[in-house]
Model the fold of this input.
Amino acid sequence: MAAVRLDALGEEHLDATLRWMADEDLRWGLLLDREVTPELHRGWFSRTKEDTSQAIFAIVADGAHAGNFGFRHIHRQHRTAELWMYLGAEHRGSGIAKPALRAGLDCGFGSLALRKISLLVRADNHRAVSLYTRAGFVEEGFLRAEQIYRGTAIDMIRMAYFPASTLS
Done:
């Protein structure tokens, strides 16, 4: 099992991240239907550093940058956020998705002091839905035709994770 940790996303992670944004399978999962140019990518990175409603990390497995993990829509009063994550093609199927997700949940419920973490996932992304379900996420809703990807309406599932201590 690979040693997995989350590091703050930095300049040193941007080349790999930009390369991954060109991968069709990744773009399908993220519903990303526009080209990500180096300029757009740098602009995104600059904006995220100033945005306190986000926290973005590099997934590092055995010392190698393997993907990215983030929280968006962090709401400090309600202590909620929405997570997203992806792995580069060369790291998919390597067994690091679950430990990366666990590290992210530990960060969210630890240093970010969240009480609920949610996510949106394509209903037809069965691998991701399975990963999140096995990790303890529960379905909160099925959103028909919620997003458009390359002209096609895509169904989404909203899932959430609550630590046991927040449910009592």
User: Anything to note?
Assistant: The helical segments are 14-20, 24-30, 38-50, 97-109, 126-134, 164-167. The chain has a mean pLDDT of 93. The radius of gyration is 16 Å. Residues 38-50 form the longest helix (13 residues).
